[in-house]
Design goal:
With 180 residues, the protein is of the alpha+beta class. Helices cover 47% and strands 20% of the residues. The chain is built from 3 helices and 5 strands; from the N terminus they run H-H-E-E-E-E-H-E. A 5-stranded mixed sheet has the order 4-3-2-1-5. The longest helix is centred in the first third of the chain and has 40 residues. It is rod-shaped, with a radius of gyration of 45 Å.
Length: 180
C-alpha cells in the first residue's frame, strides 16, 4: 500500500515534531538527573568524602559521649553535695565577759557544725592571768558534755545559719551576761 505524498508529508511532520519533543524531554530529564545525581553524591560522599550515614554515625557517637559525660558530672555533683553536707560550714561565735572584773568581751564560744548539726564547739575563757580553751563535740545539735549558756547559744545560732540565708539574723551573737 502506497500513501500519497500529502499523507506522507503529514506523517513526516508529525514524526519530526515527536522527535523534537522527545529530544527536548530527554535533555530536560538529563539535566534533572544530573542535579539528582549531584545531590545524591553530596548525600553519600559529602564534601569531605564522608557519607551522610557516616556523618550521622559520627554525630550519634558524639551525642552518646556527651550523655556519658553528663552522667559522670551528675555523679560528681552528687558526691560534691554529699561532701559539702559533711563540711563544717555553719559557724557562729558568741562573745561575752566571763568575769565581772574584766571588760571587752574577750571570752568566746564558737560553734562549727555541718548540715546535720554535727561538729564541735570551742570555748575560750579569758581571765586576768590565764586563758583556758575547751573543745566539746556536738552531735545533732547537742553534746554529751554539759554546755554553758553561751555554748548553747552559739550552737543555736549555727544551727539557724542555714535558715538565716535570707538575712534575718545576727549569727555572731554578743551576750552581755557576766559570769561570777
Amino acid at each position: 500500500m502506497l500513501l500519497d505524498s500529502q499523507t506522507l508529508e503529514v506523517v513526516a511532520l508529525a514524526s519530526g515534531a515527536a522527535a523534537v519533543l522527545s529530544l527536548g524531554l530527554s535533555l530536560s530529564l538529563i539535566t534533572r538527573l544530573g542535579r539528582v545525581k549531584a545531590a545524591y553524591d553530596t548525600l553519600v560522599a559529602g564534601d569531605t568524602g564522608a557519607s551522610f550515614v557516616d556523618a550521622v554515625r559520627t554525630q550519634s557517637a558524639g551525642v552518646d559521649g556527651l550523655r556519658a559525660d553528663v552522667r559522670v558530672l551528675r555523679d560528681d555533683l552528687a558526691a560534691a553535695r554529699a561532701d559539702l553536707s559533711d563540711a563544717l560550714r555553719h559557724v557562729a561565735v558568741v562573745r561575752y565577759d566571763a568575769f565581772g572584773d574584766m571588760g571587752g568581751r574577750m571570752s568566746f564560744s564558737a560553734a562549727l557544725l555541718d548540715d546535720a548539726g554535727d561538729g564541735l564547739v570551742l570555748t575560750s575563757i579569758n581571765g586576768r592571768s590565764e586563758t583556758r580553751t575547751y573543745a566539746k563535740g556536738v552531735k545533732a545539735g547537742s553534746s554529751d558534755h554539759s554546755l554553758s549558756p553561751e555554748e548553747e547559744q552559739a550552737i543555736s545560732y549555727a544551727t539557724r545559719a542555714a535558715d538565716a540565708r535570707d538575712g534575718d539574723g545576727d549569727l555572731t551573737g554578743s551576750s552581755r551576761r557576766r559570769r561570777l
